[in-house]
């Protein structure tokens, strides 16, 4: 299967630079994956498509201010993006310009935070060991000097309000460098109303890494390798999903990260297992879904692994036709853009 089969042309003005306000006022395209029928709604109308007994699964990961700007003792400037913690005080990072961060080099981020390059991982990736006063907490320092890792295609400077806007209202577990953007459309009021209507809301955690922005550089889909990301599936979430599957109730994923998490921990028969782990599951057309019955997602980049996952779920031609319709109707695309409900 060729990567070029998942290409489409998007007018640049349809790339959303800011989120809708309020969150649930974004547009919602509803796609019936069996018939291909399309409806145009507002996101808060999602409550009309969810029913009592549905299990709605959210990713409660929290975006950390993972972008740091530092200086070398020689005066050179560097930018790093935290990817994941591998040991206490040791993080895998992406660095720019990478050539400046050779093993042994020291980087100064602030008077209280410095780091030493302790490992070389190739492709601009390094291992950094951070040093800071024992009386201080790393995440607290990060909250003061770190920057929101806005996606590169937003093409604008960070604003103070991005700390709240580029975060779901249910974010809890710190560790992501990108938001699970399908969740950005929910408000506390909408979630409460869904629960009052009998929708069962559960969470998983998948810490989103920079692989979510990683371009697919191979020609054939099957040759692409996904980055590993860490996940947690609580026991109560697994139990509720398994009960729903036994009783014929729907499991609805909010975002591709939830899909990848649940499909990673499911048996061939569709039983979900709780626990923690890592996954690099790559879902593309031909994949047989074991857990998910419906999906809430955003509009994704051309040739991206996220678009391939959506095509696997709903069918490539139906999805690409829906994208053409979205472009014609002026929908807003990508992280801060509008949403789809696929059932």
From TrEMBL:
It catalyses: 7-aminomethyl-7-carbaguanosine(34) in tRNA + S-adenosyl-L-methionine = epoxyqueuosine(34) in tRNA + adenine + L-methionine + 2 H(+). GO terms for molecular function: S-adenosylmethionine:tRNA ribosyltransferase-isomerase activity. The gene is queA. Pathway: tRNA modification; tRNA-queuosine biosynthesis. It comes from the Bacteria. This is S-adenosylmethionine:tRNA ribosyltransferase-isomerase. Pfam families: Queuosine_synth (PF02547). It comes from Thermovibrio guaymasensis. SUPFAM superfamilies: QueA-like.
